[in-house]
Each structure stands twice: as C-alpha cells, then as structure tokens.
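Dig into these lines:

——
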Amino acid sequence: MQKEDLHETIDCPLCGASAFTVIYPSNYPSSLSKEELLKIYCSSSDQKLLDQLVQCDDCSLVYLNPRTNHSVLIKSYSQAVDPTFVKQDHKRIQCFDKELRQIIKQFGIVPDRSKRILDIGCAGGAFLKAARDIGFNVTGVEPSHWMCEYGKKKYGLDIRQGQLMELGFEPASFDIISLWDVIEHLSTPGNVLKHASTLLKDDGLLVINYPDYGSLAARLLGSKWPFLLSVHLLYYDRNTIKRQLEQCNFKVEQIKPYWQVLELGYVLHRASNYFKIFKIMETVTKVFGIYSLSIKYNMGQTRVIARKQ
C-alpha cells in the first residue's frame, strides 16, 4: 500500500527543530489497506500506535513523525462514530461535576448563566452537561457529526460542529475554556491555544487534561502504555506542556493528576488491547455481574489550569 499520500513529515510542533530521536519505529501491518488506515482515525480510543514515535532533540517533546496528513485527520474525525465511548458518559459527568466544583472553589468563581464555558472537542457533551447543571452557560465545539447530534439530542446542548477557528466566536467572550483529552489530537496545538487565548476574558481560565508521557504509568508501562494510540499526535510531559502554554500567552497555575471513574468492564476492555489477561478479566466481570462496577484510576492523565498572561 502506498501511504505517502496520507502522511507528512514535520518539524517539532513545539519548537520547530528538525532533529529528533526515534523512540518507536512505525509498525504498519503489510496487509493494511488505505481504507483500513482511514478507519483508525474514526475511532477515539481503540487503535494502538502504528506511526513512528520520536522525541525532539531540542525541546524533548514526544510526537508522531511522519504523521497522518491534517486533511485526512479532519475528514476522519468528522466521520467518527463511537457509541461505546458515550456509554460511559454518566460516569464522566460525575467526574466532571466533582472536578469543576473543585476548580471554581479554588479560583473563586461563582457559577451563573452569565458565566460562559467553551469546551473544545466536547465529544458527546459530558463536561458541558456537568457544567450546565452546576449553573454555567455552556457551548461546545466538536468535529464529529455523530457526536454533535448525540449531545444535542441526549442533553439538549449547544454544540457547534467543525473546527474552532472556523466558527466565529467573539473575542473575550468566555470565562472558562476547556480541552479534555483533546490537545494530544491536535495537528497545530499552538494555533488552537493562541486562538483560545483571544476568546478568553482577561481573567479567564484554561483547563486542559492530557496523557502525561512523563508520568509514572507511562515510564513503567513503556510501549504498553494505553495512551500510545494512533489518534494521539503529541505526547506532552509537565515541562513541554508548560512551555507550550507559555508560548501561547498562558501562565500555568496548577498541574495535578486527574483521577477518572469509569466502569470496571470498560477499563478492562480498553486495557485488553495491550494485555490479553484483561480480556479474560472483562469476561469474568460479565459472568459475575460486576461489569458496571465503578473503578477510580489514573494511567498518567494530568490536568492543567492556566490563566491568560
């Protein structure tokens, strides 16, 4: 299969340097067709890393290079359909409710309908639902047509389909902007963050959640770390995410681990792509009726809060 038309070689997305060290070479099956490759990027969570993973020799950012062309990614994301993902939204809503209440208490924000939140890459709208229930005025941006329709119908949310910079939001119109598990998917994170800065009010907050390549889980699991996915283009650690935000007019206020609560069976299903024993354990949870048991876990997810400089 000729993949050259689907891929591009890039300089470091953070510092622009061209020199890098290969961490993992590409691992494409010889039988993989173009159509099968495109389907990978329509999945939000289940496809293991196939592209070459490298580390910048200058700033140490870890990223994919070569990587899938931006136009291919956007087309694939717009066509994404993932009912398995949204089945866990009831758990995500509970997590987001707790997390957002902690954030607004810490930063002295009083929720009301005049306070606006923009969630970039909002998927089916779990965070928006939690924020609206707390008392905020919420809007989401999501490339997937299917996810947009799901969030609108399920929760009655204001979700705009497309890319952030195409949607014409007014400058300085939001109090909080969030990217939950999104920044690692972006081809041009600097452009998105700089635009987000213009949309925030002067005292506004930026909230980002990302899989931390420098986390203990990532270091211990190596190539088996479950966040090494074909849909993840970037792998920040605490130093590189801070540098990225500072370049884009933000000052980091807090970085901390983000603990998520999901159903045990779902977590085992995700992990079974890397460890076969978890597939057996997933089956056991169904047999004993504990598939839906809640489990709190952290596999390197890290949450950052920043303010405009």
Summary: DSSP finds eleven helices and 15 strands in the chain.
